[in-house]
């Protein structure tokens, strides 16, 4: 369900680390960064509406 560091971001929006709950904003095409907590899995919590379609 989540995305791992190094994967390409499929949708622009806000993502949250499932481990430490840090929130980041990414644009489609970006690579998911490694989270500061080490082993992070990013989960989409709010899509960016402007580029959703
Ligand atoms: Zn984290």
Structure description:
The protein is mostly beta strands and 53 residues long. The protein has one domain (13-51). It is built from no helices and three strands. It has a three-stranded antiparallel β-sheet with strand order 2-1-3, with no helix packed on it. A hairpin with a 5-residue loop joins strand 1 (13-17) and strand 2. It is globular and about 30 Å long. The termini are far apart. The mean pLDDT is 91. The structure holds zinc ion. Zinc ion (ZN) binds at residues 17, 19-20, 22, 35, 37, 40.
Q: Quickly give the structural class.
A: mainly beta
Q: How many strand units?
A: 3
Alpha-carbon Rg, integer:
10 Å
- Overall form: globular
Write the SSE topology.
Elements: E1 13-17, E2 23-26, E3 42-47
Antiparallel strand pairs: 1-2, 1-3
Bound molecules: zinc ion.
Task: Please tag this protein with its features.
single chain, mainly beta, three-stranded antiparallel sheet, binds zinc ion
